[in-house]
Structure formats: structure tokens, C-alpha cells
């Protein structure tokens, strides 16, 4: 077997493999004789089918099978011999495959990049911390109460925090525009769900009132054709309802799966959940920042085969997130362009993490694995049962170990960098993480 390698562009390699005709003929003859002994044909006794008949009837298919097996075997021998690391399956092109001649084919594929990790000690990282103040806890409980609020229709003018049911239509330069019309829409005044000026313009309007609102679309509005445009909305108020917040009692607590009967106990549970969310938010922000810096310091090419594979994963995750899996929605219908940047980032970070693990010989620490599992389990009714389940499932346990390894790489990078710490408010700490999750 003869092998030659050519770098065509970036990570792409073309490997030309030549296999002697004798090897092909030998494998073909071996398979022909095997079939002559085992194949059953009308007119012939079992095991007595002549080789010539097998060749005439099945020779072409047998040769194709042999070529497929030979290509698979010789390709992996060739990349092993040349110390290449394919990042995806090869595209095979036959140059010579005639009977009696040497087999020659070209395998085109991408290889993993060679990574030389750059010094991270000069990188500046801003690490945030935050505390949960009593007012943060009060605000969260107020939010929970609003989520469970009841609405009662009233015969008065609308005020802040009231809910109005409205019909409206929007006009720009006297012309109605697409998406600017709705009927029977419920809107809470002060929710900031509409563009500036819309909600405040409805304060003081009672049921059956007709209101004209002159507003301007923000410069960063999501619809390109509406950015910065002045608009007139004609609004009809159908009804006004006021909010009735539930009492802080056992019935209210049970709606959130909390068995506490006292207000203090409920507040303690809410604070615990807020602390868990805060820890996750701060970690997510820090991880995002550190890995962004890691990419900036280590500019590497990534195999398109790995990016395409990650795009498929992201497509499926998007379908599952929005319930498309139940509707048998085909993930491939989602445009590839939606996921390219995210997929490329994930592949880049993954390759750099693997290299950091290898170079620094990082192994998942058992204590950290245990701590991670216990944190996950504490939100369940029977934490020990969940812990035992994790440790009884090797596949799931390996996923946890992979998460722990990533965290240990994060710690390694932070310890290598220049870190400045600052304390921020709970609200400031949480908001960016929520935006990132939405993105």
C-alpha cells in the first residue's frame, strides 16, 4: 500500500492511497469461493455451485463489497501511518478501480487543528459577587404574588399596575403597518411590554374610551422598517381590571411546591432558591467571559465537520425547547445560519478545553463530582434517591464528570489570569444571565 498526503487548504487533507491489484483479486477470489460453498441456487446442490457461475452472476457486487471493505481498512491504516487525526468522515473518490489494475483512491477530509496554547497570565478577568438583600427578597416575593394574582373588573379609570383589555391599530404617515394591529389584548400598565409612551398613555382611560397615542419606535427596535419612526396608535379600551394579590399563607406557599406553613419559612425557601439562581448566574457570566478571552488568546481553525455536527445538536435542542419534538417537527427545517456562530464557538471552546486538560493532566476530582451531584439533588424531595441514581448510571455520571472537568479548567484559567473582584447588586448580577439564557 502506497500513501501520499497533500494539504489542500487549512485543515483539509487529501490522502491518495494505492492498493496492489493482487490484494484486491485475492479478496475477491476468497469471497467468490466462500459464496460458492454457501450460496443456494436452483439447479445446483448445496456447496456445489461452480465458481464461474458465482463470478458471472454476482462478481460485480462481490467486487464492490471488497472495494468498500478495502477502502475502509486501508484508509484507517493510512491516517494512522501518517499520524493524521480526521475530524470527520472522508469523501472517497476512485481514480483507478478497474479489474486487474491497482486500486487508487483519494480520501478528502479535515483534521483536528494542532493547538499550541498561549500564555493566559496577562488576561484580565472581572469577577463579580453579589448578596441578597432583604429588599431583593421582598421584590421576589412580590413578583411571585403578582404571578398568582387575580384580576377583578372595575368601573373606573385605569391606573398603574391595572390590566386593560384593548383593541388597537398603528399608523405611520397615515398608513396602517403590518403587525401594528391587535384585538382583545390584555396589557398590564407598567409592565413595559410595549414601546415607550404606549402604556403611560392609557393611564386615566376608562372602559369604552378611545385614545390616540403619539409615540416613537426606539432606534434599536427589532423591526428594521420601524426603527425610530413616529407612529399614531388608535386604541379602544374594552375593560379595566385591578390586581388582587394573594395572601402569604399556606395555600399560597403550596402553589410553589413549598411545604412551609410560616411566612419566615417561606421566605427562607425563596432566599435559598434565589441564592441558587444567583450562584448559577455569576458562574455563567464568569465562564462566558473567561472562555471568550480564551478564544481571543488562542485563534484556531475549527473543522467544518465538527461545526456541522454541533449545528445538528443545536437544532434538536431548539426543537425540544419549543415543543416541536412532540409535533414531529424536522430540526433540519431550521436555517443553518441561525446556529453557525454558536456552534463554532462551542466547538472552539471544546477543542481548547480538551487541550488544556491534556497539557495540564487535569482529572475530575471525586469530591467536586460528589458536590455537583448533591447540589443537583437538593432540589428534589428525596435527594439521596437522586444521588444514588446518578452513581448507579455510568453514562449520566460521566456527563457530570465532564461538567466538573470544565469547571476545573475554568478554575485553572482564573488562577492563571489577572482577576479583579467587585460586588454588585443582586439585580445586576441576575439580569445578564437571563439575557444570555434567552439568547
From TrEMBL:
Highest classification ranks of the organism: Bacteria, Pseudomonadati, Pseudomonadota, Gammaproteobacteria, Oceanospirillales
Any GO BP annotation: protein transport
Species the sequence originates in: Nitrincola tibetensis
Domain notes: Consists of 3 domains; the N-terminus binds the ribosome, the middle domain has PPIase activity, while the C-terminus has intrinsic chaperone activity on its own.
Domain PPIase FKBP-type span(s) in chain numbering: 161-246
One Pfam assignment: Trigger_C
MF terms (GO), sorted A to Z: peptidyl-prolyl cis-trans isomerase activity; protein folding chaperone; ribosome binding
Annotated catalysed reactions: [protein]-peptidylproline (omega=180) = [protein]-peptidylproline (omega=0)
Gene: tig
E.C. no: 5.2.1.8
Gene3D superfamilies the UniProt entry points to: 3.10.50.40, Trigger factor ribosome-binding domain, Trigger factor, C-terminal domain
Primary role: Involved in protein export. Acts as a chaperone by maintaining the newly synthesized protein in an open conformation. Functions as a peptidyl-prolyl cis-trans isomerase.
Name of the featured protein: Trigger factor
Location of this chain's protein in the cell: Cytoplasm
Keywords: Cell cycle, Cell division, Chaperone, Coiled coil, Cytoplasm, Isomerase, Rotamase
Family the UniProt entry places it in: Belongs to the FKBP-type PPIase family. Tig subfamily.
